[in-house]
Automatic annotation (TrEMBL):
Alphabetical list of Gene3D superfamilies matching this protein: 2.70.98.10
GO MF terms held by the record: carbohydrate binding; isomerase activity
Protein's organism: Niastella vici
Name of the featured protein: Aldose epimerase
Top-level division of the source organism's lineage: Bacteria
Keyword list, A-Z: Calcium
One GO BP: carbohydrate metabolic process
InterPro entries with a match to the protein in the record: Aldose_1/G6P_1-epimerase (IPR008183), Gal_mutarotase_sf_dom (IPR011013), GH-type_carb-bd (IPR014718), LacX (IPR037481)
Pfam families reported for this sequence: Aldose_epim (PF01263)
Cofactor(s) needed by this chain: Ca(2+)
Length: 289
């Protein structure tokens, strides 16, 4: 485990998967991250790369050849190297290797940089195409925040507030993890989603192309919460394991396969493309109070 800290907050990150496991506000002593109880969901904040979500039959096609990838890809299970580590910043690096080549035929560098500033943690994903051919990928975040956040409050005392009024449906997920073609109502001319465990009984709430790039966790019962900024991420997932005391706020550059997919990687919804030596960068930030 690696620690970065400043005067206000401390973050703990595991080199396996470069996974954030704790985010503690020093003054109020709250840890905002889900503790990873395996009875519900034994993770904290896995990183999704080089796919987000599930592939049809766990398979994609590239240049006429089938490749198998598990849900959310392989990065969350790989050991990252530490490229840089000082007091309030750490950078992890994952490169392609013989193991990744069997499931993902691209030469890449994937960096994850955690940086603290005052009461905020910024998480930057940097993907470099280190090969000569065009590279296709998705990348996403999956941080789980503890709800209820403070003693004496209940899960239903909390809400998510978007920075724009939204009318946005959710895109249902099929039993085999694919995106259905018919959306269902979710946000109707509102900027607020009240949390309840019933929300997630049918898997994640998947949103496409919303106007908002900020979600705030609020409650009428406590002044503690957080602000979550995710500019440049076209998809947003909201999820919790059934009856678990957390909520995942998941900004994605990419999405699970549609039930109508042709399985061609370059045709995949939300796929990102890099030419040789090109770099892709996205950052999300959580500010705790």
């Amino acid at each position: 485990m690696f620690i970065i800290e400043n005067q206000q907050i401390k973050a703990v990150i595991n080199a396996k998967g470069a996974e954030l496991t704790q985010l503690v506000h020093k003054e109020n002593q709250l840890d905002y991250m889900w503790a990873g109880d395996p009875a519900f969901w034994g993770k904290h904040s896995p990183i999704l790369f080089p796919i987000v979500g599930t592939l049809k039959n766990n398979t994609y096609l590239h240049k006429g050849k089938p490749y198998q990838l598990p849900r959310h890809g392989f990065a969350r299970d790989k050991q990252f190297a530490v490229e840089e580590h000082n007091g309030d910043t750490i950078t992890f690096l994952l490169r392609n290797d013989a193991e990744t080549a069997t499931v993902y035929p691209f030469i890449f560098e994937f960096r994850i940089r955690y940086t603290l500033f005052e009461n905020s943690l910024a998480v930057t994903y940097e993907v470099v195409n280190a090969g000569k051919e065009e590279m296709y990928f998705s990348v996403g975040a999956h941080p789980a925040f503890k709800i209820p956040l403070v003693p004496g409050t209940a899960y239903t005392d909390y809400y998510l507030q978007f920075n724009h009024t939204e009318t946005a449906p959710r895109w249902p997920i099929s039993p085999d993890g694919l995106i259905e073609i018919a959306p269902l109502p979710l946000l109707e001319n509102t900027n607020r989603l009240n949390l309840s465990k019933d929300l997630f009984q049918q898997d994640a709430l998947v949103l496409k192309g919303i106007s908002s790039s900020i979600v705030t966790l609020g409650s009428d019962k406590t002044t503690h919460g957080f602000r979550f900024d995710f500019p440049g991420f076209p998809f947003l997932g909201l999820w919790a394991a059934k009856n678990a005391d957390f909520v995942c706020i998941e900004p994605w550059c990419g999405i699970a396969d549609s039930v109508t997919t042709n399985q061609q990687l370059e045709d995949k919804e939300g796929i990102n493309k890099l030419t040789s030596n090109e770099t892709f960068t996205r950052t999300w930030t959580v500010s705790v109070y």
